[in-house]
Amino acid sequence: AKQEGRNTYRFFTSQMQAQSMRALELENALRRALERDQLSLHYQPQVDATTSKVVGVEALLRWQHPELGMVSPAEFIPVAESSGLILPIGQWVLETAAQQLKVWRSKGLLHITMAVNLSARQFHQPQLPDLVRDVLRQADLPPQCFELELTESAAMSDVPAAEQTLAQLQKLGVRLSIDDFGTGYASLTQLKRLPSYKLKIDQSFVRDLDKGETDKAMVNAIVRMAQAMGLRITAEGVETRDQLDFLQTLGCDEAQGYYFSRPKPAAEIESFLFQRTV
Ligand code: C2E
Ligand code: CA
Ligand code: CA
Ligand code: CA
């Protein structure tokens, strides 16, 4: 048993070393990726929960590394965040998503919104509202078709600063969504102070909907609260017809998930958008 313990320990040490090596490697590689055009955006439709018509898309970052293959944002976003690379990367995401929406609008898709994820670090940049304004101007977009998704925990990490930034963004006319809702620690008081437009119920609740009454009751409570606050509500991670049916019954406004479509490159998602347009 003793020997086993030592092996386990050694295993973890080398695994941890490998992990921090990989983090450093990733940071350097990510720096080059930005210069070498290895980043791209995939888009996942957001649909009206009742009609299944497309109301918008969410832009999701992808990194195709020549040797590592497709690196998951769950892995590289934290590295980008801690190294500060998230700022130039985030700017690239905003610009690229805005230009894509401009292209889609020119092809007649006038009723879709573009949702872009913001990291905590980007959100705490005082220049963010100016950047968003410039990006919208360059792409000639009406601000209401642009949505910024901010995780509940990022929005809550510094509420007074968040309030100011959010107020400026709201003045611009862009919409604000609270992402991963239910996984952070927002109090109702904090939530009430944020000028948000939409709550996105975290996919962990949706995934467990069929596991029992507790998750159903929680999703129900979140939807009722959002309705009372006049917020729109989107369910993420919808994978089955049963999940969709239940969310519909509750009065969820929008749904997003593999049941409708996986995130795909612009050229591959286009036909879906045209088929389900309002
Ligand atoms: P998120 O914003 O919560 O995005 C939803 C994630 O769930 C995406 O993972 C999406 O591909 C995945 N997903 C969508 N539908 C389903 C489903 O039906 N089932 C399951 N199991 N998963 C589904 P992805 O693309 O790997 O992104 C992971 C996270 O990385 C995102 O979570 C977001 O926090 C972050 N991220 C992605 N792109 C960006 C970006 O441009 N900027 C920043 N700051 N973060 C980003
Ligand atoms: Ca999101
Ligand atoms: Ca989410
Ligand atoms: Ca998430």
From TrEMBL:
Name listed for the protein in its UniProt record: Bifunctional diguanylate cyclase/phosphodiesterase
Organism annotation: Comamonas nitrativorans
Residues of the full protein shown: 460 to 737 of 737
Domain EAL, chain residue ranges per copy: 23-277
Transmembrane region(s): none
